[in-house]
Structures are given as structure tokens and as C-alpha cells.
Amino acid sequence: MARKVPLRKCILTNEMYPKKELLRIVVNKEDEIFVDPTGKKNGRGSYVVKDLEKVEAARGKKVLERKFGKSGEELGPIYDEIIRLIYREDIPKR
């Protein structure tokens, strides 16, 4: 019997993806926002697809700024971290 694949909705595209294809962004009780590559940190989680084009398009449309009610200066490092993690995963493992 096939195992059920957990799906999550990407906040950039509003599409459902397997959880493994997404990065988790967490807002904790101190109202800090950070990227959680492990998917296990405490806080309210939102998911972003690991697709550079969609992340760059979302940055232009200020999707995270609207979602979290923060300024672009606060969320600029979040976009950078998402992009850095996407590039890191594209490198073949030896």
C-alpha cells in the first residue's frame, strides 16, 4: 500500500505541494521571523516552494510583507535565506 504524502499549501502560490518540496518559515512568540530548514522549530509555520522564479516573483509582489504584516527591510533577509537554501539544495551531494 502506498504511503500518504503530506501536502502543504505554499503561501507564495496558494498551491499544494509535498512537504519535502517546501521550506518552512516560522513566526515565534517573540514575533521573530526566520527560515526553518529542519521543519521542527517552535512557532507558527508557513510554507514556501523551493522555486527561485516563484520566490523572486513573490519578492517583487511583496507577498511575505503582506502575509506577515512586516516591512521589506525586515523580510529582505528572509527572501535571501530562502534563495540561499534553494541554491544549497541544487548542489549535487557527493
UniProtKB/TrEMBL annotation:
Residues 8-82 form the YlxR domain. Signal peptide: none annotated. InterPro entries: YlxR (IPR037465), YlxR-like_sf (IPR035931), YlxR_dom (IPR007393). It holds the Pfam family YlxR. Gene3D superfamilies: YlxR-like (3.30.1230.10). This is YlxR domain-containing protein. It comes from Lacicoccus alkaliphilus DSM 16010.
